[in-house]
Amino acid sequence: MSEEYAGDISPKEAWKILQNSPEAILIDVRTEAEWAWVGQVDLSSLKKEHLLVEWNRFPGGVSNENFVEDVAKLVANKEAELLMLCRSGVRSKYAAIALTAAGFKTAYNIAGGFEGDPNEERHRGQVNGWKVANLPWVQG
Q1: Which residues form the signal peptide (predicted)?
Q2: Does residue 81 belong to any structural domain of this protein?
Q3: pLDDT class for 70, splitting at 50, 70, 90?
Q4: Domain CATH number, residue 70
Q5: pLDDT tens, 3-39?
Q6: What is the span of the domain harbouring residue 68?
Q7: Is the dihedral of CA 16, 20, 21, 22 positive or negative?
Q8: pTM score > 0.90 for this model?
Q9: Quick check: is 14 in a domain?
Q10: Which regions of 1-140 does DSSP assign to beta strands (E)?
Q11: In the 8-state DSSP scheme, what is residue 112?
Protein backbone atom coordinates (compact mmCIF):
# COMPACT_ATOMS: atom_id res chain seq x y z
CA MET A 1 0.00 0.00 0.00
CA SER A 2 1.28 3.42 -0.94
CA GLU A 3 1.79 5.85 1.95
CA GLU A 4 0.05 8.74 0.19
CA TYR A 5 -2.56 10.76 2.08
CA ALA A 6 -3.17 14.44 2.86
CA GLY A 7 -0.84 14.33 5.87
CA ASP A 8 -0.86 14.62 9.64
CA ILE A 9 -2.63 17.47 11.40
CA SER A 10 -2.95 18.32 15.08
CA PRO A 11 -6.28 18.00 16.89
CA LYS A 12 -6.53 21.82 17.01
CA GLU A 13 -5.93 22.02 13.25
CA ALA A 14 -8.65 19.39 12.78
CA TRP A 15 -11.02 21.48 14.90
CA LYS A 16 -10.31 24.57 12.75
CA ILE A 17 -11.04 22.61 9.58
CA LEU A 18 -14.30 21.33 11.08
CA GLN A 19 -15.23 24.90 12.06
CA ASN A 20 -14.39 26.44 8.68
CA SER A 21 -15.35 23.74 6.18
CA PRO A 22 -19.04 22.75 6.09
CA GLU A 23 -18.16 19.62 4.10
CA ALA A 24 -15.41 18.38 6.47
CA ILE A 25 -16.16 15.10 8.23
CA LEU A 26 -14.44 13.55 11.25
CA ILE A 27 -14.33 9.74 11.13
CA ASP A 28 -13.44 7.92 14.35
CA VAL A 29 -11.86 4.58 13.39
CA ARG A 30 -11.44 3.17 16.90
CA THR A 31 -13.40 0.15 18.13
CA GLU A 32 -16.93 0.04 19.54
CA ALA A 33 -15.40 -0.65 22.96
CA GLU A 34 -13.24 2.49 22.77
CA TRP A 35 -16.22 4.60 21.72
CA ALA A 36 -18.30 3.27 24.61
CA TRP A 37 -15.70 3.19 27.40
CA VAL A 38 -13.10 5.87 26.58
CA GLY A 39 -15.30 8.56 25.07
CA GLN A 40 -15.98 10.31 21.78
CA VAL A 41 -15.48 13.72 20.25
CA ASP A 42 -18.35 16.16 20.69
CA LEU A 43 -19.01 18.26 17.60
CA SER A 44 -22.43 19.49 18.76
CA SER A 45 -21.18 23.07 19.19
CA LEU A 46 -20.37 22.98 15.46
CA LYS A 47 -23.79 21.48 14.69
CA LYS A 48 -22.02 18.44 13.25
CA GLU A 49 -21.84 14.74 14.00
CA HIS A 50 -18.85 12.48 13.51
CA LEU A 51 -18.89 9.06 11.88
CA LEU A 52 -17.95 5.81 13.60
CA VAL A 53 -16.31 3.18 11.38
CA GLU A 54 -14.03 0.58 12.96
CA TRP A 55 -10.64 0.04 11.31
CA ASN A 56 -10.20 -3.11 13.42
CA ARG A 57 -13.15 -5.07 14.79
CA PHE A 58 -13.80 -5.55 18.50
CA PRO A 59 -13.28 -8.03 20.01
CA GLY A 60 -10.17 -9.62 18.59
CA GLY A 61 -8.69 -6.71 16.63
CA VAL A 62 -9.43 -8.34 13.27
CA SER A 63 -9.11 -5.94 10.32
CA ASN A 64 -12.35 -4.53 8.98
CA GLU A 65 -12.00 -5.71 5.39
CA ASN A 66 -15.01 -3.56 4.45
CA PHE A 67 -13.63 -0.32 5.91
CA VAL A 68 -13.45 1.61 2.61
CA GLU A 69 -16.88 0.34 1.53
CA ASP A 70 -18.34 1.22 4.96
CA VAL A 71 -17.03 4.79 4.65
CA ALA A 72 -18.20 5.07 1.02
CA LYS A 73 -21.75 4.20 2.14
CA LEU A 74 -21.66 7.11 4.61
CA VAL A 75 -19.68 9.67 2.59
CA ALA A 76 -20.91 10.28 -0.94
CA ASN A 77 -18.70 13.31 -1.59
CA LYS A 78 -15.18 12.12 -2.38
CA GLU A 79 -14.09 15.79 -2.42
CA ALA A 80 -14.96 16.34 1.26
CA GLU A 81 -12.10 16.74 3.72
CA LEU A 82 -11.96 13.61 5.87
CA LEU A 83 -10.34 13.85 9.29
CA MET A 84 -9.37 10.42 10.57
CA LEU A 85 -9.12 9.81 14.34
CA CYS A 86 -8.04 6.81 16.44
CA ARG A 87 -6.46 6.41 19.88
CA SER A 88 -2.99 7.72 19.04
CA GLY A 89 -2.81 8.34 15.28
CA VAL A 90 -1.62 4.98 13.99
CA ARG A 91 -4.81 3.27 12.78
CA SER A 92 -6.15 6.60 11.52
CA LYS A 93 -3.03 7.08 9.37
CA TYR A 94 -3.60 3.72 7.69
CA ALA A 95 -7.28 4.60 7.27
CA ALA A 96 -6.34 7.90 5.59
CA ILE A 97 -3.96 6.05 3.26
CA ALA A 98 -6.66 3.48 2.35
CA LEU A 99 -9.28 6.14 1.67
CA THR A 100 -6.88 8.17 -0.46
CA ALA A 101 -6.06 5.05 -2.49
CA ALA A 102 -9.82 4.53 -2.94
CA GLY A 103 -10.23 7.96 -4.52
CA PHE A 104 -11.13 10.21 -1.59
CA LYS A 105 -9.35 13.48 -2.38
CA THR A 106 -8.31 14.73 1.07
CA ALA A 107 -7.96 12.32 4.00
CA TYR A 108 -5.99 13.63 6.97
CA ASN A 109 -4.63 11.77 9.97
CA ILE A 110 -5.20 13.50 13.31
CA ALA A 111 -1.77 13.02 14.93
CA GLY A 112 -1.93 12.10 18.60
CA GLY A 113 -5.44 10.75 18.13
CA PHE A 114 -8.08 10.91 20.85
CA GLU A 115 -5.99 9.84 23.85
CA GLY A 116 -2.48 10.61 22.63
CA ASP A 117 0.84 8.91 23.10
CA PRO A 118 1.73 7.26 26.42
CA ASN A 119 3.86 9.17 28.92
CA GLU A 120 6.86 7.72 30.76
CA GLU A 121 4.48 5.79 33.07
CA ARG A 122 2.68 4.44 29.96
CA HIS A 123 -0.47 6.46 30.69
CA ARG A 124 -2.37 8.04 27.83
CA GLY A 125 -4.33 11.29 27.92
CA GLN A 126 -1.49 13.42 29.28
CA VAL A 127 0.97 14.00 26.43
CA ASN A 128 -0.98 14.94 23.31
CA GLY A 129 -4.21 14.20 21.48
CA TRP A 130 -7.79 15.48 21.32
CA LYS A 131 -8.43 15.32 25.07
CA VAL A 132 -5.13 17.02 26.02
CA ALA A 133 -5.90 19.79 23.51
CA ASN A 134 -9.04 20.48 25.58
CA LEU A 135 -11.32 19.95 22.62
CA PRO A 136 -14.93 18.91 23.30
CA TRP A 137 -15.61 15.27 24.10
CA VAL A 138 -18.12 13.15 25.98
CA GLN A 139 -18.00 9.86 27.83
CA GLY A 140 -20.73 7.31 28.38
Answers
A1: none
A2: yes
A3: very high
A4: 3.40.250.10
A5: 799 999 999 999 999 999 999 999 999 999 999 999 9
A6: 7-117+131-138
A7: positive
A8: yes
A9: yes
A10: 7-9, 25-28, 40-41, 51-52, 81-85, 106-110, 137-138
A11: T
